[in-house]
Design brief:
Elements: H1 22-42, H2 49-57, H3 67-79, H4 81-88, H5 101-115, H6 122-136, H7 141-156, H8 158-163
């Protein structure tokens, strides 16, 4: 905690500083967009991807993200949500609609990068999804995301895993 001035009522806790690369920022914004989409779907609404992307782009930090990565992940996950959920579901220990929206979104992004966008090594895809779950999710949600994506990687990237 930081020292507070005498006029302050309560101590001010400093949030830990995170080093956000443009790629990490892109994934964080993609997670936020996928999260919004999932929440809207669960409420019975049809998400508007363009409106969600426009809203995210209005955030001042958005200009420091890697826009093409954001767009690729965000649009790719939304276009293939059903396909990605089909890939994820066999690795789950509960129905997919019982996942928290943050874990669900992180798993969709991780599955997208493991199955569709093969530009990131499997370890990076898993680590990035785990970091998203740590940053935005519940206490141990990242452990669940890690376990599920590790199982998926063994199926989807077995040749890459075997070579090293």
């Amino acid at each position: 905690m930081t020292k507070t001035p005498a006029t302050s009522q309560a101590p001010v806790a400093s949030a830990p500083k995170r080093s956000l690369t443009p790629r990490r920022r892109a994934r964080e914004y993609a997670l936020q967009g996928v999260y919004q989409s999932l929440v809207m779907r669960r409420a019975g609404s049809l998400p508007n991807a363009a409106a969600i992307a426009k809203q995210l782009a209005e955030d001042p930090g958005f200009r420091r993200c890697q826009h093409d990565l954001f767009q690729g992940i965000f649009a790719g996950v939304l276009e293939r949500t059903d396909e990605l959920e089909g890939i994820i579901t066999p690795a789950l220990d509960r129905p997919i609609n019982e996942l928290s929206p943050v874990e669900h979104a992180a798993l969709l992004i991780g599955a997208y990068e493991l199955a569709i966008d093969l530009s990131a090594p499997y370890k990076v895809a898993i680590n990035e999804a785990v970091e998203l779950a740590k940053t935005f999710g519940g206490t141990d949600g990242h452990k669940y995301v890690n376990g599920v994506l590790d199982l998926l990687a063994q199926k989807l990237r077995s040749a890459e895993i075997q070579t090293g």
